[in-house]
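Next comes this protein:
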Amino acid sequence: MKVKILIIILLFSNCLFSQIESFPQYPNPVKIPISLSATFAELRTNAFHAGVDIRTQGVEGHEVFSVSDGYVSRIGVSPYGYGKVLYITHNDGFTSVYAHLSKFNQKITDFVRAKQYEDKSFAQNILLNEGEFPVKRGDYLGLTGNSGSSGGPHLHYEIRYTETQEPVNPMFFGLKINDKIKPCIKGLAIYPLDNSFVNHSDTAIYLETTLKNGKYILDNHKFSVNGNIAFGINVYDQADGSNNKNGPYSIELFANDRLIFSILSDKYSYSETRYINSLIDYPYYINNNERFIRTEIDEFNKLKLYDKRDGVISVNQGDTIDLKYVVKDYCNNISVLNFTLVGVEKTDVIQCD
């Protein structure tokens, strides 16, 4: 039974996480320096990324190893999706997934080939019982590759809760990366809701940020508002040695130093994928191919990634509210954006089509 504690801090190569659950610590699944081309819960088209993508130096053929004792519970082969993939159910309540492989080890290869001949089908989804293919920590599983719907050689690596099959962030399990680069805050959106306004307009405003002396700033950081106001932020993260634009670990919004909204890339359920287009400013994404994560949470959005759900604030005449976005990556590199709302008299607004 997992021990519940108030806060546990996991330190991985100077990477800091605050969690409410302790996790087993695994070795890396490949014996090469770990560099990520995609992070957990990264936003994709109509989906969240369920694991991390480990770069394999642009080539296939690196050996992949089981991260813990257990057994092979599922084998997949497909020209699409995860391609050649192995699922290892461990004795600690978690299942590890290794996808886009180029080759299984010889024992699994022989078993799969026999099934393909028997079924007269290349595609396979084989469910196995405990004891058929037991594995130990460090056992060789196969080789990294580019099979399935893969855009280049890499290892897609997932950890799931075995009981629920919910994906959980693999970084909590000891995956070690080097990263000293702060997340990038590209833009801020301010949304007047209902009969509200910002800068005397009832239409959302979208603002680009500027990086100056290591800080993200706006050309004008004060906004005249009245009514209920929500926000959006456009961010990405990069790590040392990689040009990929990945998702950050956390986004927090403070109003007068009080946390009102946060989203953490810790775990989610596959059934929650439907909420991704509610999480973002979907019309803006369709028109501009840029994702702003909204602080207004729709009534039926039950996404578990939300940690604090009070992202709409009411501003009246005479109020001054200092807002601060704090964006963190997996190694606790932090970027901040400050701005201020000034409550003014409610007047006729300029309506824009």
About this structure: Helices lie at 106-119, 276-279, 282-288. Confidence is low (pLDDT under 50) at residues 1-14, 16-20.
